[in-house]
């Protein structure tokens, strides 16, 4: 029983970062209407921003979240203006090929600049744990989970309680009607894509402490984010959190209880996508 509880706790703590990355992808898909295969590379950039700040100034990664979010928002805005906006009217295949090419380009640029070696941000509390009876909580995952909950709460509050947030929701529901009400759709697209990159970048900062920074660290999180938004429903931001919890729980249970489960964990998202699509097809029939 204790092993099961510890496994569930580990899954819940991992779900925070999953939800951050997937919420950013859900914004890009739901508001801008583009499937961004380079989303994980924004996470990778966030991890390297935290690493560079740490080695150059000694700034704790969790204290650099705001700066990293600003940097990634600007990266997302520049990406939107320079690459995404010109292809918004193009066929979806063109859009997907563009973002896939961007993903490959960013990975290779990172390989040229940083090399293939992983970079670890070694904080004083990196291996620290808190105990509650027989259960243990890693300090970095616990901090990452708490911050993820706070950031997602702020995101939902922004979307629900501000005029700009309501404009984002209106564009997500109907891309034509808001323009008739004076809402600048292209500006909303810019904001949504910038926020999408910022959320991914913040998750990358947390990963720099919990795992490492490397040119390929974001790829797995792109796949996980796709699985989550497929399970939640494309563009359904509200469904992202429960879907992230389900995926993280499934991975934790497979890792703990399936023989050789560590090697199967990265395939769990395939099963999640298959089950979600099959279930939706069955309901529609």
CATH architecture: Orthogonal Bundle
- Record the strand order, biggest sheet: 1-2
Helix content percent band? over 70%
Helix vs. strand class: mainly alpha
Q: Tell me the count of domains.
A: 1
Count the beta strands: 2
Strand content: under 5%
From the alpha carbons, calculate the radius of gyration and give it in angstroms. Answer: 19 Å
CATH class wording: Mainly Alpha
Most strands sheet: 2 strands, antiparallel
For the residues shown, what is the average pLDDT?
88
**Total of DSSP H or I helical runs spanning 4+ residues:** 12
How far do the termini sit from each other? Answer: 40 Å
- Secondary-structure element string: HHHHEEHHHHHHHH
- The 3D shape can be described as globular
Note poorly predicted spans: none
Named CATH topology:
ABC transporter involved in vitamin B12 uptake, BtuC
InterPro entries: ABC_transp_permease, BCAA_transport_permease
Organism: Meiothermus ruber
Pfam families: BPD_transp_2 (PF02653)
GO molecular function, one term: transmembrane transporter activity
